[in-house]
Amino acid sequence: MRNVRLVIWDFDGTLAHRRGETGWSILLAEALDAEEPGHGHTAETFRPYLRDGFPWHRPEVAHPELCEPEAWWAAVRPLLSRAYESVGYSSTRALELADTARRLYVDPDVGWALFDDTLPALERLSQAGWMHAILSNHVPELGRIVTGLGLRDVVEHVSCSAETGYEKPHARAYASVLDHLQPEEAWMVGDNVVADVLGAEAVGLPAVLVRRPDPRAARYADTLAGVPRFLEEAVAA
Question: How many other CB atoms sit within 10 Å of the CB of residue 95?
């Protein structure tokens, strides 16, 4: 494609959220709510057990062997089940609960929602001639979630680490979008200063940090409504 101006968006925590957070600990408690009401555990119960073990915790390591959905989940399932085991569930029951958590997480109608500022920002930039792509460290079913949230009509391309084998801030993650769309100009926007800003800038992409301020980011907006001004200023310059 020629003369394409592209905004590459992070997904979770930037365009959308699940139950108001970006982590998985609420999910594990929610699975218990569905299976064992009155269990007495909260998201904080599981948070310490989920701080390592996902593919995105080691973004420097490519994982092409996990690019099939069942292979990806086979690698993550033990992490989820260990969290349940750590609070007293048997290994068999922990695996069952991990499977329940998976079913809940990939269902776009259960818990997922767009931020209120997402569609207005995308539409404003579309009207100004910008194309949109999503680049996310996420589960293999990301495309299903994006479709369920009604973003397919707005977003040209979705690149998911579970399909490419590369997690942001690995350079090949950004290349999975840039090589596909070949934009003349591209920006990265996301809520993670390392994955979405510093990693993008390392490969030559200007970036905007949103929602979670960090002094390492040269450009920051509290909401997506503040993103267009950075792009408009760059075009005017």
Answer: 18
